[in-house]
Every structure is written in C-alpha cells, then in structure tokens.
Amino acid sequence: MIHIEYAPGIALDYVKIWQLVTKRAWSLICEYWMVPQPAATLARLTFSNGYYSEGLAQMLEVIMQHQDNFVPSMGPGAGMIQVTRPSEERKEAASICMKQAYSHARLEFEHTLSAPIA
C-alpha cells in the first residue's frame, strides 16, 4: 500500500509518498516541497530509504509545477490518499490520465508507470 500525504488547498506546498513495509511501519519513498524562489537552489524532490524512480521524479515535477491544471482538493479526506497495488487496467487508465495532463501542459508523456525501486 502507498500513502500520499499533502497539505490540501488551492496550491500544494508539499507531497510525501510513503510505502507500507510492515503491518504498522511506513517507509518514506520521497517528498517534494515547493520552495520559494530565493531558495531555488535547494532540491525540491528528495528520495529516501534507498528508493528512486526517474519516472516518478519527472511526473512529480510536472504535477507540482503545473498545479493550476488540476482541480484543488479541499473536500472531506483531503490531505491523504492511500493506494493499493493497481491492476494492469488501472495502470493503463492512469497512463492515459497522465498523457492528458502532460498534453494540457504542452509536454509529452513517455513513461511507463512502475513502482519505485529500493
């Protein structure tokens, strides 16, 4: 199971992605912080605990830098999403959604969705 944590609102300040590793233990995969312009030399995205995924890094960069292309999440339950391992059909649907989001931002989506490696 994957847990995605964020600060709900019009624009996200951060996103953290966690993986359930045992019944009660979560391992941080990565975190992305929107940093003010003077601090632009700081890394916005950091992977933790040996995880890394170039595709995830690129997708998070596009999503966080083009937040105005997405509907704000401020309803009940906002601030956390938990995701189980997707079926092949859901992976294909997610890939189509990402292609549409990239297209709207005038970018080309060339990734296959896979789990971050540790």
Q: Provide the β-strand percentage band.
A: 25-35%
Number of helices: 2
Structural class: alpha+beta
Topology as H/E string? EEEEHEH
Biggest sheet: strands side by side, in what order?
4-3-2-1-5
Poorly predicted ranges: none
Distance between the termini: 15 Å
Main sheet record: 5 strands, antiparallel
Number of strands: 5
The overall average pLDDT, rounded, is 82
Number of domains: 1
Output the radius of gyration. 14 Å
Summarize the amount of helix as a percent range.
10-25%
Written overview of the protein:
This protein has one domain. It has two helices and five strands. The protein has helices at 54-65, 88-104, and strands at residues 2-6, 14-22, 25-33, 45-47, 80-83. It has a five-stranded antiparallel beta sheet, covered by helices on one side. A hairpin with a 7-residue loop joins strand 1 (2-6) and strand 2. The protein is globular, with a radius of gyration of 14 Å.
Structure at a glance:
The protein is of the alpha+beta class. The chain has helices at residues 54-65, 88-104, and strands at residues 2-6, 14-22, 25-33, 45-47, 80-83. It has one domain.
Topology:
Elements: E1 2-6, E2 14-22, E3 25-33, E4 45-47, H1 54-65, E5 80-83, H2 88-104
Antiparallel strand pairs: 1-2, 1-5, 2-3, 3-4
